[in-house]
Specification:
By secondary structure, the protein is α/β, with parallel strands linked by helices. It folds into two domains: about 130 residues, Aspartate Aminotransferase, domain 1, CATH 3.90.1150.10; about 260 residues, Aspartate Aminotransferase, domain 2, CATH 3.40.640. The protein contains twelve helices and 16 strands. The strands form four sheets. Strands 4-12-11-10-7-5-6 form a seven-stranded mixed beta sheet, sandwiched between helices. It has a four-stranded mixed beta sheet with strand order 1-2-3-15. It is globular. Bound molecules: pyridoxal-5'-phosphate.
Length: about 425
């Protein structure tokens, strides 16, 4: 007798098989019988350097034998201090305070609470949060509130707070989205507290890309109207878009930056919300009622911090940027190869991420070919998880050219099999 496991984003009623993975190394997952599966989506966008990187494994082993967990309210430890020091080399100088939590969703909740707390303690009535259409910021109530509404959160709609939504800045319609942002920022009846965006690429919303120029302009509009600019780099951070953080490509220094997924190399949960001094100062006081009221039991868990320190060491000591550039070049060549196919549309690339739509006549997340594609890739031993008819690749940076090529081949087969022109 065993309890039944309820899996995330899984419709158990469809009776799909749930394969079991026994071990992993680099970009490869292995079943108990030895079958190799290529991890083409970095185990849900988290793994950066590949599975079981020896430096991260030994950092976790050593730290767990030394100090496993300690309350972080009023106490500290060496791995957290080391991480604060290390992150200073990766973040803009203006982001000089870091707050730890456990996941991307909580990093976003923390960012929203920091922003609201900032205006509250300054005595200004700014409460509205601005968001971009098609955004995804996590699955907790606050994170869902600032994300796109739809089938994913319909049942919880009564719990979600109202936000101001600007259009996604589609190519050639960018100005309209920027004008909407400016209009919200100027609204004196309901002055916004903050804008939260996924910089350069919207992940769960369908790998939708917009330009660094638009990102820069959005940040400038916010600055001009004192609206806080929150960058959710949970997915884009740690090299995904070709630079360590996506904001770098736009020369943008956000007021608050959220990171999680790749912070520990994607091995164990840890998140950081980095903030400018002004956010911290708004809470700094001799008055205990003004402290930042947020924590979780495992805030800054020492083992997770040690894994993050190992991640930083890998960035410093290994040719990570070269690996990223090789993937980007390979994606580009594959995109050229696909250019001629009539059943493919929306080919686009952002750093290590390549995305495309298979034309199937329907075309949204609930698209009927979604489950068929999932099955097809599973049967071909490639871990790909299309968003409806959108296929994307987001591999760990250690992936070999041969492994990339086998992913490309399987995608070509899928296009031949399911695409209509
Ligand atoms: C994945 C993701 C989150 C949520 O992170 P979790 O660790 O799954 O809670 C938030 N924002 C973005 C942009 C993400 O891609």
């Amino acid at each position: 007798m065993s309890l039944n496991i309820w899996h995330p984003f899984t419709q158990h009623g469809l009776g799909e098989p749930i394969p079991e993975i026994a071990r992993a190394e680099g970009a490869a997952l292995y079943k108990a019988d030895g079958t190799k599966i290529i991890d083409a989506i970095s185990s849900w966008w988290v793994q950066t350097h590949g599975h079981c990187h020896p430096k991260i494994v030994s950092a976790i082993q050593e730290q767990s034998a030394q100090l496993d967990q300690i309350i972080f309210a009023g106490w500290t430890h060496q791995p957290a201090r080391e991480l604060a020091e290390g992150l200073a080399d990766f973040l803009p100088r203006s982001l000089d305070h870091i707050f730890f939590s456990d996941s991307g969703s909580t990093a976003v909740e923390v960012a929203l609470k920091m922003a609201l707390g900032y205006w509250h303690h300054r005595g200004e009535a700014r409460q509205k949060i601005l968001v971009m259409e098609h955004s995804y910021h996590g699955d907790t109530i606050g994170a869902m509130s600032v994300g796109a509404r739809g089938v994913f959160n319909q049942a919880y709609a009564p719990l979600l707070f109202d936000v101001g939504t600007i259009d996604f800045p589609e190519a050639a319609a960018e100005q309209a989205a920027l004008d909407q942002l400016a209009a919200f920022c100027k609204d004196s009846d309901s002055p916004p507290a903050a804008l939260i965006v996924e910089p350069l690429i919207l992940g769960a919303g369908g790998m939708k890309i917009y330009s660094p120029a638009v990102l820069r302009e959005m940040a400038a509009i916010c600055r001009a109207h004192d609206v806080l600019f929150i960058a959710d780099e949970v997915m884009t951070g740690w090299g995904r878009t070709g630079t360590i953080f996506a904001c770098e490509q736009a020369g943008v220094e956000p007021d608050i930056l959220c990171m999680a997924k790749g912070l520990t190399g994607g091995v164990i949960p840890l998140a950081v919300t980095a903030a400018k001094d002004a956010l911290y100062q708004a809470h700094f006081s001799e008055d205990r009622a003004r402290m930042f009221f947020h924590s979780s039991s495992f805030t800054a868990n020492p083992i997770a911090c040690a894994a993050a320190n190992a991640n930083l060491a890998i960035w410093r000591d290994e040719p990570v940027q070269e690996r990223i550039d090789i993937i980007a070049a390979a994606h580009q060549a594959f995109a050229d190869r696909l250019q001629r196919r009539a059943s493919v549309s929306g080919l686009r690339q952002c750093g290590t991420i390549l995305a495309l739509e298979i034309n199937d006549g329907a075309g949204d997340y609930m698209s009927s070919i979604g489950p068929e594609l999932l099955r097809f890739f599973r049967d071909h031993n490639v871990l790909l998880r299309p968003l409806g008819n959108t296929i994307y690749i987001m591999p760990p940076y250690c992936i070999t050219c041969e492994e990339l090529e086998s992913i490309y081949r399987v995608i070509e087969e899928a296009i031949d099999r399911f695409g209509t022109s």
